[in-house]
Each structure stands twice: as C-alpha cells, then as structure tokens.
Design a protein that fits this description.
Pfam families: HisKA_3 (PF07730). By secondary structure, the chain is an alpha+beta fold. The chain has 3 helices and 4 strands; from the N terminus they run E-E-E-E-H-H-H. Strands 1-2-3-4 form a 4-stranded antiparallel β-sheet, with no helix packed on it.
C-alpha cells in the first residue's frame, strides 16, 4: 500500500493540492489556478510541512514589517504636520512633538530590525521556526 497523504492548502487566491507519499519519498503539487503539476523525488512529508510552515512564517513577517512601517510612517507624517503648525505658535510644544516623533522612528526601526532578523535567520536555517514561535509565545504571555 502506498500510504498517500493529502493536504489541501489555500494561500490568498492560490489553491494547491499536495499529495505526499512518505514511503516512496514523493511529493506532488497540483496548482489548478496556474495549471502546474510538480513532481519532486526525495522529499518526505515532514520536510514538506516544515517548508510550508516556514513559507507562512516568512509571509507573516513580511506583513508585520509592512504594518509596522505603515503605522510608523503615518504617525511620523501626522507628527510632522503638527510640528509645522506649532513651530510658529509654541516652540516648546513643537520640540516635544519632535521628541515624540523621534521615539516613533526609533521604535519602528527596532521593530523592523527584529522582524528582519527573525525572518533572515529562519531563511538561512540559523533559527528554528518552532523555537522562534515558542519564544514569541513566551514573550507574549509574560507581557
């Protein structure tokens, strides 16, 4: 008996069907949306699952960076607009606003660097995805 494993994944608009036979070391990917059929030998199901998890984590990190930058840049833009109004009316408040903007910039840079460090480490195999997720979970529960 071949012992095939089926895994149906949806990722945005792409629908893929993965068929894996660990005993044969075979992995087949059907992508009806792009009419692709891919057959690779020497892949086993745990490796496939790890690759899928790593890809999802990379996409999550990319979204996180996008969201972090978007939030920071929006805050910076609004803060600078306030400084423009305050600079002629109240120099002390304008300086305070510039200090606030500086904090937003530093925090944004720190967050992006942290996300890039994690993503690059996973990509290069220097960080274990499972360990990264467990560390993030621990940090969230401590907060």
């Amino acid at each position: 008996m071949l012992g095939l494993s089926l895994l149906l994944l949806t990722d945005y608009n792409l629908l893929s069907l993965f068929v894996a036979s660990p005993s044969l070391g075979t992995y087949i990917r059907f992508c009806p949306s792009s009419l692709q059929v891919l057959l690779l030998f020497g892949k086993n199901f745990p490796t496939l699952s790890e690759k899928i998890a790593e890809d999802r984590e990379r996409k999550r990190i990319a979204r996180e960076i996008h969201d972090t930058l978007g939030h920071a840049l929006t805050g910076i833009s609004a803060g600078l607009a306030a400084v423009r109004v305050l600079v002629d009316r109240d120099r002390i408040r304008a300086k305070e606003q510039l200090d606030n903007i500086s904090v937003v910039v530093r925090d944004g840079i720190r967050d992006v660097r942290a996300s890039l460090h994690i993503g690059y480490g996973i990509y290069r195999g220097r960080l274990n995805l499972q360990k990264v997720i467990l560390d993030l979970e621990r940090k969230l529960t401590e907060a």
